[in-house]
Amino acid sequence: MLLIADNLHIMNPVVAKALQARDPLPFKKIAEHCTKVNAYAMDINLGPLRNNVEEVITFVIEAVQDSFSGRLVLDSIQAEVIAAGIKICKQPPIINGFSLEEGKLQTILPLAAEYQADIVGFLIDEQGKIPSGTEERLAVASRLVAAAEEREVPPEKIIIDPVLVPLTWQDGTHYNRALIETIQILDQMFGQPIRTIAGLSNIGAGAPARVQRQTAEAAYIFMLAASHLDYILMNVAQESNLTALNLSQLLLAEKVFAWQEV
Amino acid sequence: MLLIADNLHIMNPVVAKALQARDPLPFKKIAEHCTKVNAYAMDINLGPLRNNVEEVITFVIEAVQDSFSGRLVLDSIQAEVIAAGIKICKQPPIINGFSLEEGKLQTILPLAAEYQADIVGFLIDEQGKIPSGTEERLAVASRLVAAAEEREVPPEKIIIDPVLVPLTWQDGTHYNRALIETIQILDQMFGQPIRTIAGLSNIGAGAPARVQRQTAEAAYIFMLAASHLDYILMNVAQESNLTALNLSQLLLAEKVFAWQEV
Q: Which residues in chain A are contacts of B206 at CB distance < 8 A?
């Protein structure tokens, strides 16, 4: 399971302030931390951009690429933001992302075809809903891959995100249990390996205390790793997340095991 | 994932001493603790018994059943120990267990047919070896179920134990990774639900410190729970194990989730 940092997000006050001031330093610091913790990629989410799209995205990506040589995940609901970003990425970017919603199929998905880029496909149906059970999820996955193939994006380019939901949702744990089952059987359903990603930070929304949130996130890291999730998108400033990820990689033979590392 | 306590084991010095002295109190105390932590069952392993087999097993089971009303797992390589125990169990016992080794097929497996009891089937081949990869494990599982059916023990009565190995083994993490994959796909391979069990205490053999062992055991609890293991056999005197099990049950919707319980 490879690590993707979700720290460069407009909801992070440090990011919002630095973007406003066009201060590259906070971006470089986040990028340096991602390098330090061996992140495979960094997600970049600047929220909706109204003006100077190309200038803004270029400023951020250049600041980041000075200090981080991994891949970038271009996370936006605006095709023009993603398109502007793709052109200046030094490594193959990952587009984040599309779903069965018509707008996304029309505007975001074609970028993956045009630039032959990897793209995240959310298991969200035509009406914008997250399916609750495993069977509905597999059905949505099947329609998602078919829609991509129609637009010349092959399954090898798709990274499915079955969308972890907050534990405070009614039936939130049922949704997330179905997510775990789904990622375990996707490969078999498609008859070929399909990559998967999950965003961890969502689950803790509404947690009464930081320690509880950390405990739940660490537990999901182990559960998702055992289910062969390919990419985990998470807060890399949280030490307990990194500890759990490292241990899961040791125990699942992705690294050489030694008790001293535990 | 249901809890089975492995504390009543002859390797536990308290148990060895109490057995020697025919002191029922330590057995009752272990049983009371199992009741307190809501264990589904208790494994009873008294080691090889040479004399007074019936007297010894009766003494222990009666002491335990005074304070624990769950199921008992009769864990022995001696058919006569298991047979003596079965007769006095108040709840349906679980026989632990058989494998493809000829001796086990000849002596232990027939007890499951005779008493229509659940029986643990170890994924250990005809030569007494634990298969390393997932495919070999599935092949052994298939031969194991076939051997049981030949002796009138249907798949519904079998609880497969793919045998967690110590992390200090060469390739120990590869073995255990294959175990996790195996339990995820057993149902699909058999085309029907097959129950599974794993013994956690084995993995920590050789750990340099207690805290590392605890950390690794907790991680496996989450990974095995996400893989839909049915029964986890573990040390219920270790608080961190119970905490991890409780959290996994909350997160996997086996209990009603509330942040206060995390």
A: 259
